[in-house]
Amino acid sequence: MRLRKREPKENIEESKEFVKMLRQKLSCNKGKMPSEEPPYKKKKLNSQHSHSHASQNGFVNNYKLQQERRRLPIFPAKHKLTQQIRSLDTAIVIGETGSGKTTQIPQFLHEAGVHRGSIIAVTQPRRVAAITVSQRVAQESGTLLGHLVGYSVRFEDVTSESTKIKYMTDGMLLRESTLDPLMKRYSIIVLDEAHERTIHTDVLFGVVKKAQRDRKKKGLKPLKIIVMSATMDVDHFSNYFNKAPVLYLEGRQYPVQVFYSTTTQSDYVMAAVVTLFQLHRDHPPNQDVLIFMTGQEEIESTVRCIRDISKDMVGEGPPLVVCPLYAALPSHLQLKVFNKTPEGSRKVIVATNIAETSVTIHGIKFVIDTGVVKAKLYNPNSGLDLLKVVRISKAQALQRTGRAGRESSGTCYRIYTEEEFDSFKKNTVPEILRCNLSSVVLQLLALGISDIVNFDFMDKPSIESLIGAVHQLHSLGAVTKEDCIKLTPLGKQMVSFPLDPRLSKTVLIAKDNHCLEEILSIVSMLSVDSVMFTPQSKREEALETRKKFISSDGDHVTYLNIYRAFKSVRGNTEWCHENFINLRNMRLALECSQEMSGFGFFMNAAELQKEGEFISLSSRKPVNIHPSSSLFMCKPAYVIYNELIQTTKCYMRDLSVVDPEWLYEAAPHYFRKKKPKPG
Ligand SMILES: Nc1ncnc2c1ncn2[C@@H]1O[C@H](COP(=O)(O)OP(=O)(O)OP(=O)(O)O)[C@@H](O)[C@H]1O
C-alpha cells in the first residue's frame, strides 16, 4: 500500500513570480505556434485511419457504439485472433495504443464462447482504468455495469453472479489468489498493460503461470493466459511464458503527430505551461489538452498557475476548464475529467501517469509530455523506499502520445529533445527491482511458496532486496527463520490485511496496547485517498476551518481527530461540507476500519541532531520534515513517519511526535543495534 499526503504546498510567492515570468515569455512568443518555430520540431506522422468520431452526448447509442467498434483496427482481425487464442494456452498480444485490445478482446472471447461459461479476468495497473474501461465495455455490450461486465478494485466490487468479463486491478487479483491459488473462478486471465511491470503484475505473472501448470497437473479445467501491451519486450515475455506465440495486431486508430523540443528545457513545468498557452491561443474550442506531470503538489500548483494566467487572457482563446488528476484525488473528481467539455470551452487536464495507459479521455487532441514521472526506488542498504522524479521510458512516452489519438487525430508535444528521448530506457524498470519487497514476500509465503529466492520471477530481484524484506518481516515478527522461512501466526494474520506489513502489525498489536480504536482509525484514514477537500476558490477558508483538528502531536493524531469528529456527527453530509471533508473517502475509511480489527513504524523513526537536522534512525541519513506537515515549524526530538520522498531534499511525510522509550519498547531487538544517542 502506498500512503499519501494530502495538502498541496502553499507557495503563493513562488507562484506569482512564475506567472510573471510566464507572461513575459508569452508576450515574446505571441502568435507563434509551437510547431512553426523552436522550441519544437516535427518528428513523425503516424497516418493510417481517418474518420470522424460519433458524438454520444451522454446517451448510450448502441448503434453508434457498434459502428465505432467496427472501425477499430482490431475489428478485421476478430475471427482470426479469436481462433488463434482459442487454440493456445498462453498468448502474447501486441498492438498499437487505441487499436482495441483492452475493450474488444475480452468481448470477442466472450461472444465466441472461448471462456466456456467461466469468468474472464482482465487486470489493469490502476483503478481508474479498471472502472472507466468496464463502463465503456458495458455500454458497448448494451448491458448494465455489474451484470455481464463489472469491475473489482479495492473497497469496490461492482460484479454479480452474471458477470463474465471482470476488469480488476492487478492487486485485487493477487489478493484473490492467496485465497484460491488455482484461480478456479477464471477460465481466462488477461494481464493487460504488461509493460508497466508493476510489482503486482510481476508477482501475478509467476502466480498465474503456476496456477496454469497446477491446474493441468490436477486435470482441472485449463487456464488461458493472455499478456497484452502496446510496447513490450516480446522476446523476454515469450521466453518467460514457455515460448508463447506473439500475436501482432496491425494498425493504429488515429494518427498522432509528435513534436520534440529543440533545446533541453531546464524547467519542464514552465515549458509545459508556455506550450499550453501557445496552443490555446491558436486552436478552436473543444480541442482539449492533457499534460503529464509528476505528483499532486506540482499538479495543484500548475493548475493554480494556469487558472491565474487564463484570467489575464480573456478573449485570447476559449474559456479554460482546468482539472487536476492524481491518485489521491477523490474518485468522483477523478471521474469528472472524463466528462465531455462544455461547448465552446477547452478542457485542460494536468495528470500524473494514472492517465497514461488504457484510459480514453473525451476530447483530448493534444498531449504535453514533460518526460518525467515520480517513481518508487528502494535502497536495500538503507531499507528505505524513496519517491523520486525520474525520466520516463520510451514505452511510457509512447503510451502518453497514444492518449492524443483515441477519438481523432492528435498532436503530442514532448518537452524534451529527440536526443534526450533516444537516451531514455527502452522499457520501464520493473517495480519489483526497485521497491521494498516485504509485502511481496509475505504474499508469496501465504501462497505456500517458501523458496522465495527461487520463485519464478520474470526478472529476479536482487538477493539483497529479498533478504532485506525477510529481515524486515522478521523484525516485525511475521516470519521465523529457523530451517526455512515460515509465516508465524502473527504473519498469517498480517496477510489478511490489504496493508503494508508495518501497518498490519501496527493494527495487530494495538489491541494489547489498549489503543485499537485509535490505531484502526488512523490506519484506515491513511489507507484511503485524501479525506481533506480543498477547493481552489475556497482554499484559505478550508485551511482555516480545519485548523481545529490539527494536533501538536502531528498528522496521525490530526487524522484521528477528524475521524472521531466525523463519527460523532454520524457521518453527517452537511458537517462534511462545512468542514471541507470528503464524505466518500471518510465513508471508505470507516468501512476500512470495520474491515480490519503496535507500532510497526519503528523503522521509520528519525532523531533531531544538535545542529537542528533530523537523521533517519535506520539509515543514519539526513531527512527533513515535509512542508505540508503540521510539524513543519517544530523541532521534536523524535518523530515517526509513513513515507520518505526525495525531491530537492529527502522529506518525511505523515509524521507523529514519538517518545524514544516507545521505540525501544516496540522493538527492543531492533534498537539494541541502533540505539539513538541521548540528547
Ligand atoms: N471510455 C471510453 N470512451 C470513449 N471511447 C473509448 C473508451 N474506451 C475506449 N474507447 C475507444 O476505443 C478505442 C480502443 O480502446 P482500447 O482501450 O480497447 O485500446 P487498446 O488497444 O487497449 O489501447 P491501450 O494500449 O492504449 O490501452 C479507443 O481508442 C477509443 O476510441
Automatic annotation (TrEMBL):
Region span, Disordered: 26-60
InterPro entries in the cross-refs: DEAD-box_helicase_OB_fold, DEAD/DEAH_box_helicase_dom, DNA/RNA_helicase_DEAH_CS, HA2_WH, Helicase-assoc_dom, Helicase_ATP-bd, Helicase_C-like, P-loop_NTPase
Keywords, ordered alphabetically: ATP-binding, Helicase, Hydrolase, Nucleotide-binding
An annotated GO cellular component: nucleolus
Domain Helicase C-terminal per the UniProt entry, residue ranges: 275-448
Taxonomy, superkingdom: Eukaryota
Domain named Helicase ATP-binding: residues: 82-250
GO biological process, one term: positive regulation of transcription by RNA polymerase I
Keyword Hydrolase (UniProt): yes
PANTHER family in UniProt: ATP-DEPENDENT RNA HELICASE, ATP-DEPENDENT RNA HELICASE DHX33
Protein name as annotated: RNA helicase
Taxonomic lineage from the root: Eukaryota, Metazoa, Spiralia, Lophotrochozoa, Mollusca
